[in-house]
Structure formats: C-alpha cells, structure tokens
Amino acid sequence: xxxxxxxxxxxxxxxxxxxxxxxxxxxxxxxxxxxxxxxxxxxxxxxxxxxxxxxxxxxxxxxxxxxxxxxxxxxxxxxxxxxxxxxxxxxxxxxxxxxxxxxxxxxxxxxxxxxxxxxxxxxxxxxxxxxxxxxxxxxxxxxxxxxxxxxxxxxxxxxxxxxxxxxxxxxxxxxxxxxxxxxxxxxxxxxxxxxxxxxxxxxxxxxxxxxxxxxxxxxxxxxxxxxxxxxxxxxxxxxxxxxxxxxxxxxxxxxxxxxxxxxxxxxxxxxxxxxxxxxxxxxxxxxxxxxxxxxxxxxxxxxxxxxxxxxxxxxxxxxxxxxxxxxxxxxxxxxxxxxxxxxxxxxxxxxxxxxxxxxxxxxxxxxxxxxxxxxxxxxxxxxxxxxxxxxxxxxxxxxxxxxxxxxxxxxxxxxxxxxxxxxxxxx
Length: 427
Ligand code: NAP
Ligand code: HSE
Prior knowledge:
Elements: E1 5-11, H1 15-26, H2 28-35, E2 38-45, E3 60-62, H3 65-69, E4 75-78, H4 83-95, E5 99-102, H5 105-121, E6 126-127, H6 139-144, E7 151-157, H7 160-172, H8 176-185, H9 194-197, H10 200-214, E8 219-220, H11 233-241, E9 244-255, E10 258-269, E11 281-288, E12 292-299, H12 303-318, E13 345-352, H13 355-361, E14 365-370, E15 377-384, H14 386-395, E16 401-404, H15 409-420, E17 425-426
Parallel strand pairs: 1-2, 1-4, 2-3, 4-5, 5-6, 8-10
Antiparallel strand pairs: 7-9, 7-11, 9-10, 11-12, 13-15, 13-16, 14-15, 14-17
Helix pairs in contact: 1-12, 4-5, 5-10, 7-8
C-alpha cells in the first residue's frame, strides 16, 4: 500500500537542522504539490535530549539513532557539527539503504569518497548542495546546466564568516574579534570558528567542489590553507584606496589533466567579479569552456539560506531528479600565465614604507607600487614565484602582507597604466 506521506528524519537541530524543520512546516503545501505526498518530520535526533526545542507535537525529539530509525524515514537530513559526529550516523544510514542529505562539509571532505561508495553499494543517495556555498544553487547548477562545459577554473569566496568579518573590518572598523563574535551570533560560524577564519572550511568545500566537478580531489599548492587572521585593517584600507579589495578566495584550476587548489586571501581589482561580493555572501566565479565567465552569488551561510539548499535536495532526491557525476571533466589545455605554486605570478605585498626598495634590492621585479603621501603603508605588486616571496618574508625584518592578485598580466599592466595618471600609483 503506498503511503500518503514521505517521512524525513533530521539529525542535528541547531541553525541548519532547525531551519530545515521550520522550512518543511512553512512550505508544507508547496512541498506536497512538488512531491505528490505530504512531507512529515516524525523525529529529530539531537545530543542533548533535555533542551527545549521548537518542534510540534507530531515530532519526537530523540537521542539515539535506533529511535529515529523506528520511524522508518524515507530520507534523513544530517546537520551535526563535524566529521567525527556525523560519520557513524551517515555510514549506518547509507548501509541501510537510506538516503542522506547533508550540510556537513567536513564529513564530506574527509569521508566523502568512502560514504559515496557505501551509498552506491546499498542503492542509497548522498546529497550535499548545502555543504558548499550555503544557499547558492551551485552544485546542482554545475551538473545540470553547465554539464556540457569543461570547467577550466573556479575562484570562490566560499566562507561566509570570513567574508562577513573582512567586510565589517573594512566598512565599520570593527575589530576581528568583535566581527567574528557577530558572525557567531548570526549562526554563520562553525561550532569551532577557527575552521572558518583559518581557511579549513573553505578548503573542505574546495575538496567537495573538485570531486563534484572533476571526480577527483585536488593537489594542494600548500600543505595548509591560509585564513584571514593575518589580514590587517591597514591592508584592507590600502587595497580599498587602490581601487581593489582583499578577499578570502578558494581557487581550483583544471589544466594539463591536473586539478590544483589553493585557499588564501587574495587581492582583486574593482572590476573583478568577486570584488562586490560582500558581507555573508559567497560568490563563485566559474570559467566554463562554452559559457565563459559565470558568477553565482548569494548567502553563503545562515539558517534559511542553508535550509533552502537542503530542502531542494530532499525534493529532488525523493522525486528521483537529483544530479549525478556523468564523467570527469579534465582538460589538457596550456597553463595560464601566473599558474601554480612553482610559477611566477602577480602578488601584492604590503608593508611599511621602503618595502619596494627592499624588494628591488633583493632582485624582485616590481610591476607597480601603491602609495600616496600620508599612507603609512605601501603596497607593491611584483611578479614572482610564491616560494621566493616566502623566502623574502622569512629574512625581512618587518611583517608583510602577501596577497596573490587574481588577474592576468594584461589586466595588471592595464591597471597600472591607468593608475599612472593618478597620484595613488607610481613606478
Ligand atoms: P549547530 O548550530 O552547532 O548545531 C549542531 C547540532 O548538532 C545541534 O543540534 C547538536 O545537538 C547536534 N549534535 C551535536 N552532537 C551530536 C551528536 N553526537 N548526536 C546528535 N546530534 C548532535 O550547527 P549548524 O550551524 O546547524 O551546522 C550543522 C552542520 O551544517 C555543520 O556541519 C556545518 O558545517 C554545516 N553548515 C552550517 C551552515 C550554517 O550557516 N550554520 C551552513 C552550511 C552548512 P544539541 O542541540 O543537543 O546540542
Ligand atoms: N561556517 C560556514 C561559513 C557555514 O561561514 O561559510 C556555511 O558553510
């Protein structure tokens, strides 16, 4: 006998889990139209069974997986804080052939391959639109409406918390600590916010994105991601005065049958697609072989944007209309100017006055200088290998900021040509 409802279990009832629960209640009629059946939530599984929850009488709050399973869910949303917590639940569910929709990027980055295999063996699905770029319909768009394209490059602001912090520091003069506290209050940050501001969250998302698009994990340009702790208010202001911005960017490159990745603060000019992606928003700049430059932008974190992505996955999977990896999309194209870690690229260095002189003395070729009378800091764009800049930083007696420039040679030279007319840049 076919049931008149689909049953959804939810594991984790924090920002995301609660957002999913209330979205399902608020959009009940629309969901019934889309699914042809009612979508109910008979049980939510949490850690602390004593906390008061905003659930209705039809929903049990349980603390054991067996009690959630007793409700015979058709699919389960997993929204626990980290890989360690989510793994045993998701593994168990997939082994039982139960489809899981997860928002847990750390889990997917660390255990995604294994979990996908288990899902495949047990005719279950594992979906994760919410895990990368929050409310932006990114993953499904990449597989559904960009599937004919080779994806050559992705540069994305993938961590809403870091973008929020940098925006508040620049626009309001808020301190790093206060801005991070605000992001936590708004439900944007991870339970351990170091994962946001030290770049780990963006690196988990890059791993997922690489596997989602290319079917393989990337080779990392450095052993660890770079976060935003080293970005100073002075550098944010210098970049702004120079007509650009410092943004925390995750990059994936697809060239010569290799996928490479980096996560770090970068400098973008005012005409770069990521320049105007502000606040908690994420922006994902995709270079497709047919579509050209595409920017997807929207809220990268928060209760309802994330719930939106989760609920859309739930509808798609229950209707059997979810996207699958068709084939790897590697390309054998020539490398761009300013490619990997072992090649020369344009890099903005910031430091106290005299930095450009020290760079020149040390044999670096200075492309342009950002300085004006009254600025206590100077910015210098050089074309150099990242390893050589790291060497320079080690022996230089003062702190410097290092920001790869997200632009090709022509754009950098054009910028300095234009700036030559003004007092803000000189050679
Ligand atoms: P959160 O507010 O900290 O909520 C975490 C939930 O997990 C809580 O309800 C907690 O239960 C529950 N939990 C913890 N340990 C558990 C255990 N052993 N068994 C069962 N439940 C357990 O976290 P969140 O912000 O909702 O994030 C959830 C996941 O979504 C994370 O993986 C995060 O990276 C991801 N995500 C978050 C956002 C966002 O904007 N916040 C966006 C996209 C993805 P108690 O309530 O009993 O403590
Ligand atoms: N902490 C994450 C962020 C949540 O700030 O982007 C969304 O993945």
